[in-house]
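Can't paste images in this forum, so I'm doing it all in text. The chain is below; anyone willing to post the predicted structure tokens underneath?
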Amino acid sequence: MSGRVGLTIGGNPAGRLASFAAGLAMVVFSLLTIRHFFDANYPDSIFAGSFCDISAFFNCDSSAYSSLSALFDVPLGVPGLVIGALVMLGAVFPSEEFERTNRFVALVNGVGVIALFLVSVLVIGSLCLLCTGYYIASLVSLWLFWRYPPQPDGAAASRGRGPWLHPSLLHLSAFAVFGLATAWGFAQYHQALRDAQSGGASARFVRQYYELPEVAWPSTISPFRTASATAEFEGAPIRIVEYADLLCSDCRILYEQLDRLKREFPGKLNVAFQFFPLDASCNDVVEKDKHPGACELSYMAAHEQELFPEVHKRVFENFEDAKRPEWRSALAHEMGLERAVDDSVTRSIVRRLIETGREYEQTSDEYSYGIRSTPTMIINNRMVIGTFPDAQMRALFAALIDEAEGGNRGFLENWVE
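Text version of the structure:
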């Protein structure tokens, strides 16, 4: 081994084993992250939607739906998969050149995962547990390269002083080709899934929707609308009762989606916002206490019906700020809603809407009632839990409009899967 020792060279079996284990962990967490990205953005069925069921902060869905989840159609987990594979290969086929190159890549990767961690926490406002597993494995790998730097056999230990910035250009070029080829393959797969969503997957989603049992509207339908095509709730082709939480990240995603779709289908939607904060201070229908402050925001939004659209918009467009008590206090002061939290009539309205969650049969053995997570939508008397891609919701809306206007929904059977 050219008389040098290091993490994987110079007869260091413990170092090689530790490096291989770190690389394997990076590969496993990368694969799980990639799978979650595709599952969240391209669910196979109406039963596989992703929803806010972990916590407001530890939530992989926020990462999967963020603009940083994929670059040039390549899921962000793919570079991690490649780097983890290279770390493993370096441990199995050790050489000085391989180790110097992996050491350089580990440094760049370490800087990258710290940056992504900060973006997740400070910008996105949530942390994906799968991504966190990759971050930890990456930093362990970086520490191992620091702990065992390449140096002449017999030299005094000089932790961290090895050649961090001296990769083998030949190896680095080979790594780049391998990485680009892998990224291209995933980009093609991503594009194929996107194309499928506009055809077979959307048709399957619509068929599964029509196969769902019909459910009754809640005994009290919220008067607070986020879309209002007609004065009477039943008067629009598409009628949605949206059980939602103003501090639920998936509800924010649905807010953005419905905002796009109501512009695509003008005059076709009535959407009633059915307050269902996952905050134990006002909701005992479901045993979840995930979003402290959600009850306070519900009272503020429900206090003055004419102010509801503005409060609803301000909260979702300042989502991270809305989690802070001081921001909520400032908004209440600005909009004259300081009395909302203590107003008995307002509290009674919100309570009555929350209580309608008890009216639906169980959808999970873990919880007593059908409304147990947010968002949950009753769309034209069928229950849909979670969030789904625009293409699938767009196809469903088109089918509902066609049905309402006297069309034959059997045309859906003609879509190619």
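The radius of gyration is 26 Å. Residues 63 and 227 are 27 Å apart (CA to CA).
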